Amino acid sequence: MNALIKWITAVAIAVSLASCGKSETSSSPGGGGTPKVAVIISTLNNPWFVVLAETARDRAKELGYAATIFDSQNDPAKEASHYENIIASGYQAILFNPTDADGSIANVRKAKAAGIPVFCMDREINATDAAVSQVLSDNYSGCVSLGQYFVKEVGDTGTYVELLGLVGDNNTWNRSKGFHSVVDRYPGLKMVAQQSADFDRAKALEVLESILQAHPEIDAVFCGNDAMAMGAYQALVSAGKADKVKVFGFDGADDVVKLIAEGKIVATGMQFPKVMAQTAAESADKYIKGERDFPQKTPVAVELVNGDTVGNFSDYGRK
Amino acid sequence: MSRPKQTLRSRLLLWGSALLGVCVGLYVLPLFHIVPLKEARAQSAAAAFDAAAYVEEFWNEKLLKGVPEAVDARELLAAFDEDREKAAARYGHRLGLSGNASYFVSGSGDITTIDRGAIEITLEQGGMVIIDTGPVFGNAIRDGSGLLDVSDFANSQDFNALSSEINRRVEEGVFQLLKEKAAMGAAVRFVGAVDVADSQSDVSSLNLVPVIIEFP
After folding, report:
1. pTM metric for this prediction
2. Are residues B28 and B51 both part of a single domain?
3. Which ipTM value was assigned to this complex?
4. Are strands B205-214 and A93-96 parallel, antiparallel or unpaired?
5. Which of A209, B4, B91, B186 is the most exposed place for a label (fewest CB within 10 A)?
């Protein structure tokens, strides 16, 4: 029975050591030094998200916090490891741009369990009891307006291509559904191709170039974001079709707004990343100072930017 | 020669009981469940949001009962004339941070224009309400009613599906009635929703998405 006793002792020691790892060392707020806020962004590869991240960081700094930006590179696994890092490092709040509406929920719950409030920006998570609040762009309604303008500009008959964003992002489908809820009502408007270009400019260039091989005569392209609209526009310029094909984007990125002012791209939806980032940072500050009454979701309306209204917009917001 | 046998037996006993322990553990807390495909599909379908059912209940139980709270169209137009911001704050509903407010409006008047795409109603004490009779888009009724909270919906797409369903009801219900009965000079009573952008300079008429139309 010696072996049995040794075995039981070994297991007992192992179990007690294992439970040591679970205890969270949450920082004491009064623990000296500037309080820290983390800004987790889905990707810094897209200038729109860079604006979101930097505005959040800058606003947090203005409010008296040390802010650090973490780039998830569109990878839920990287995002999870950022969360592990942040939870272990004494941050007071997280300003969060999720990579996956379903996949990111677990990370937010971990932070919540560790006593760190999470404020979502731009993209949502499919849960209303995890984040403290979510400041979201009303993508569906923005694309309904864009779709109505699309029909006005392209007419009730014609052919078009749709470039979709990342398929795991709620916003991709909100935008596509909003657009189709209008355009599909006009049977004369035919979608000849629909493909994902992952919200990426270089990929959109490639994807549209190959679609144009199969469908050289199209009237318009609807892109789920402005980075793809720029790629699509480049593809059309190379093919010599930039003045025949109407390009529509979504985001309100500076480069597309400039091209709209020049009449080269037809329209986009302005998303107000600065408003969302500032609101999230301010909510985090209020929470840290004791406020608890936050609406779970605050949609931020998207405004149509076209040749007529472009004068009102610049620099990712209203002039 | 008894010692080697004893060690072997005790080792066998040890490993045997450990294995038994693991098996019992896995029985109580299994690592995975096998669910027949049909059952899994049925489960996810049941959990999926039924916009039609939700809107059916919302329309009959809440929206129609909210009619007495609708602001009179004439009163709203007068309030806009006086002070746009105050009117929006008092009568309007904003969804989150928006440059647009929605209103729930009622009133009566006479039909003064019938076009292929629109019907114009001139109000009893002056002022105009226009009903665009093309396909219905937007969130005027969902947001103008002030009865729905976006925070109650875990997935924004469910909240958006409500507008599609509401708009479909308007097209298949109220618009059909209008088609049949609208005539020049006819007296009509209406209840519906109006969206007004803060940047809209001309608010002398209201673009109405109707919930109720009655020809008294």
Report:
1. 0.81
2. no
3. 0.80
4. unpaired
5. B4
